[in-house]
Amino acid sequence: MKLRKVGILLLLLSVWGGTMMFADSASQKVRVIINGTEQDDGGLIAENKTYLPLRQLANSMQAIVEWDNQSKRATVYKPNVHMFLFQNNAVFGNVAKGYQGKFKVFAQIDNLKTDVTAVKVSIFDPNGKEKVIQTESVNTSKDNFWYATDEIEYKFEASGKYPIRFFLKLKGSDEWTVVSEKLISSL
């Protein structure tokens, strides 16, 4: 009786192990690296096709993903957003560590193929701490618009990269999506 139970257990483990090996060979994991950064969620290869996580890919490309649950359809939008930094009508860029001064952010948005309700511009210190420069509701039916922040005073206390990010909020959503980024280096 005991030998029979051991035999059945071995048979079940063999079938289970073979199934797991077949499933692993039917789909293989893929490392995904975007602009030199390995992504947390990798992709899969199944039936000679590569599948990548859409939201992660869109976020890395600074694109917007709109999900329609009813039709089970994902739509990706990549607006063109060009940001310029100005200080007293001169282009503003890299600064010395400890620099404190005022600057403005100007953005030109075009190829906008979806409705947005608000914009946000933020600066992040090298540790990732966010300071919102400006948030504003927008009411535009055009596929392009310009946006300028008020002047902000900021102190670059540490050495490192200070990303300035431009966010859009889609109509019907509470989430902000980064669609552009500029870096200020503090040396």
From TrEMBL:
Residues 34-111 form the Copper amine oxidase-like N-terminal domain. Keywords: Signal. Residues 1-23 form the signal peptide. It comes from the Bacteria. Transmembrane segments: none annotated. InterPro entries: Cu_amine_oxidase-like_N (IPR012854), Mao_N_sf (IPR036582). This is Copper amine oxidase-like N-terminal domain-containing protein.
